[in-house]
Amino acid sequence: MKCLIPWFILMILVLRTNFLQSQDIKSYKWKNRIIILTDTTAALSNSFKELNRFSPYSKELLERDVILMLYHKGKLFNSNNTLLYSGVSIAIEPGFCGSILIGKDGEIKFKSVYPTDPKSIFELIDGMPMRKAEMKSKQ
User: Distance between terminal CA atoms of the chain?
Assistant: First the structure.
């Protein structure tokens, strides 16, 4: 049963992302942090491997208002490989295969090639002034 809880929370994140499909990506500003997993292959195989690294941390993602998206050639997908947006322009060099953290202010906060340590991203987020304020207001 305990093994099912992280997957249940991850499914909530997936459904929440599906619900937001009709929104423009800019509408996430001030509401969510986004981790974009970029890939050089159309099958998104590298991104799905990276997505599996985040699956045990669904609770941490939810607490930090983080949404995971997959990116390939101007298209953003959710973790079910459902197209969310096309014609997306992200400032990354061609062939980049890695993680990009976008803060609630819409700015790139972190960028790294795979593999990415989810815990290091959470530590980075927790050190941000907006996250500190969020944690303080929840106490």
Answer: 29
